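Title: Comparing notes on inverse folding

I've been comparing how different people in this forum approach sequence design from structure. To keep things fair, I'm posting one structure and asking everyone to reply with a full sequence. Here's the target:
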């Protein structure tokens, strides 16, 4: 698939079939996402694939107090990918001080690049995904057993699409671009 078509036709999918995703497919997605750029190529992003329905049910029940529909998505998706990052690598000096005035925000930027790369790769393989940011990250980290030194950046619900989503209106280039 051409890059332009992939970018313009990928949609956030919130309803999935029950068809599982193979470990080979998950490995392929993570392998492709590994090509996402990162600060000084430090590659801080890690992935935890949650297949266990009991774990997904617990996350769905306990980690979406402000937005229960996200819990339904998590409960019903075949695979929930926890996108994590090794805290203190991206945008930091070796002594732990910040490299730029952006402080620790650069590591989240790297996680975002990798997450979008993962979702575009999933779409190219015929899978649907939605990036979930509204959740209790500390409780989710406890439930999935997040390794020490990592922080949870996002959740991605993943599966074979069971819905078609039309493209929402986009702002024009004139609205988005300015020159100085």
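Reply #1:
Here's my take.
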């Amino acid at each position: 698939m051409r890059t332009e078509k992939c970018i313009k036709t990928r949609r956030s999918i919130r309803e999935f079939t029950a068809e599982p995703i193979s470990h080979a497919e998950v490995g392929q997605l993570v392998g492709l996402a590994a090509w996402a750029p990162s600060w000084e190529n430090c590659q801080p992003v890690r992935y935890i694939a949650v297949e266990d329905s009991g774990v997904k049910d617990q996350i769905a029940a306990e980690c979406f107090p402000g937005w229960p529909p996200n819990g339904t998505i998590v409960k019903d998706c075949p695979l929930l990918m926890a996108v994590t990052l090794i805290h203190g690598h991206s945008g930091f000096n070796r002594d732990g001080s910040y490299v730029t005035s952006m402080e620790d925000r650069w590591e989240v930027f790297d996680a975002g690049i990798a997450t979008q790369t993962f979702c575009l790769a999933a779409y190219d393989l015929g899978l649907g995904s939605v990036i979930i940011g509204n959740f209790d990250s500390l409780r989710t980290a406890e439930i999935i057993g997040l390794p020490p030194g990592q922080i949870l950046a996002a959740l991605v619900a993943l599966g074979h699409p069971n819905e078609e989503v039309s493209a929402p209106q986009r702002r024009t280039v004139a609205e988005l671009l300015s020159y100085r």
